[in-house]
Amino acid sequence: MTLPESFIAELETVLGKEDTQKYLSLFEKNPYRGISINRLKTTPEKLLPLLPFSAEGSPFYRDGYYIPSDADGVGNNALHHAGAFYVQEPSASSAVSLLEIEPGEYVLDLCAAPGGKSSQIASMLNNTGLIWSNEVVRNRAGVLLSNFERMGISHGVVSSCRPEVLCQRLEGCFDKVLADAPCSGEGMFRKDNDAVTQWSREHVIACANRQISILQSAARCVREGGILVYSTCTFSPEENEETAEKFLELCPDFEPYDITELSGRKTRLSNAVRITPVEGGEGHFAVRFRRKGSSQRVGCVNCSKANNKEEEKLAGSFLEDIFRKRPDMVLGIRNGKIYLLPHDMPPVEGLGVIRAGVLAGEFVKKRIEPAHALFSSFRPDHFRRVLDLSLDDSRLDDYLRGLEIDCDGEPGYTCVSVEGISLGFGKCSGGRLKNKYPKGLRKV
Ligand code: SAM
């Protein structure tokens, strides 16, 4: 692969001649691959022995692991279907480590699709507080939602809104904000030739201009004393250090928040880190800031909704039938759809919200048809009826392919899980389970 000369010249100013040569020599090796384990569904102790490939801890995130570059069928693995892990290039996991997420916090991921970093944030929040994931490109927001459901995120919002509109409305609503901005993608060069052919100096400059505007929007949502992390998967100083410096000039109510705890390469900014293939990742830059002062986040409203009484009663008995232990969430009914919502949420109207909380089901005539997300979002021990399949049970592959399978449990809607991790559902009757695994997710 031939890299643009002006890219190499600039890289030398960042890495120095010796490490630039090391970087270039790494094009003869395979790109790094990794996964991040999702603690909403499992733990590293439980998952790692079940994986059919090796996994070695990464220095960039507490639950990040390297996997072999030739590992086969990773996305088709049943544990991946069940959201036990997310396939994520190791250095991409670094930005979330810098957010220092604590349970109960409200976190905005402003440029979120396909959802790797949102999945990490949700895993650290452990379905407390809230993760609001926004993706301006509508069809990418659909992929984000699908990943939300797979990962079992119940305390979340998915929206597709322009950053300036979203952030004006959600001013001061979040403890932590991540702006993982679109960039010139130099960190993709080893794995994607198109990223090389699409690269130009003009594109770098255009990206830098867009990034500063995204970052200014993102800043508005951070409460006083809250943390803002900006990240890219590119190496250029214009899109990284210079954007960070310009941001501080434009937003003087933010200050650098130094990084001491993360592996990677030092930069000229003490609050930033860069990872290149030399450090063991394809390429990431992350910088963090703190908003000066100290105040509580604002703007959340209690979600208790005035539902239609008759629908509420039907929904209540539907949930009673599904759950042995009903999650502590608010029941919301809107346009014939039933949701389980976190107790306190920022306002959602007019912000392109595609999903808030968990879609539990839908009224179809006088009946309620359960939604896949209801079963993928909670642990099996919440459900009244569970069919747990081990990895070597042949019914597992049949279930993932959409086939009917044997099920000797009591009749009714049944959570299907793999090795104790919820996957989806089906309807059990007469010793058989009618398959409800969504068509778009099935193995082919
Ligand atoms: N954070 C994501 C993850 O970990 O999976 C990756 C995000 S990717 C680097 C940047 C995202 O920003 C893309 O999904 C892209 O569609 C979106 N984007 C493109 N133009 C944008 C804009 N003007 N404002 C905000 N986001 C934009």
Q: Spans of 5+ residues with little confidence (pLDDT < 50)? A: none
Structural class: alpha+beta
* CATH class placement of the largest domain: Alpha Beta
**Strand content bin:** 25-35%
- Tell me the CATH architecture of the largest domain: 3-Layer(aba) Sandwich
Mind summarizing the main beta sheet? 10 strands, mixed
For the record, the count of structural domains works out to: 3
- Classified in CATH, the superfamily of the largest domain is Vaccinia Virus protein VP39
Fold and architecture overview:
With 444 residues, the protein is of the alpha+beta class. It has three domains: 5-291, Vaccinia Virus protein VP39 (Rossmann fold, 3-Layer(aba) Sandwich), CATH 3.40.50; 304-341 and 348-378, no CATH class; 381-444, Archaeosine Trna-guanine Transglycosylase, Chain: A, domain 4, CATH 2.30.130.60. It contains 13 helices and 25 strands. The chain has helices at residues 5-25, 44-47, 78-81, 94-97, 116-125, 138-151, 163-169, 193-197, 201-220, 241-250, 309-322, 372-376, 394-400, and strands at residues 33-37, 56-57, 64-67, 85-87, 106-109, 130-134, 156-159, 174-180, 222-232, 254-256, 265-266, 272-275, 284-291, 301-302, 330-334, 337-341, 344-345, 353-356, 358-364, 367-370, 386-389, 405-406, 412-418, 421-429, 432-435. The strands form five sheets. Strands 5, 6, 7, 8, 9, 10, 11, 12, 13 and 18 form a ten-stranded mixed β-sheet that branches. The protein has a five-stranded mixed β-sheet with strand order 21-23-24-25-22. Strand 23 and strand 24 (421-429) form a beta hairpin. Helix 7 runs parallel beside helix 9 and helix 9 (201-220) packs parallel to helix 10. The longest helix is centred in the first third of the chain and has 21 residues, at 5-25. The radius of gyration is 23 Å and the shape is globular. The protein starts with a helix and ends in a 9-residue tail after the last strand. The mean pLDDT is 97. S-adenosylmethionine binds next to helix 5 and helix 9.
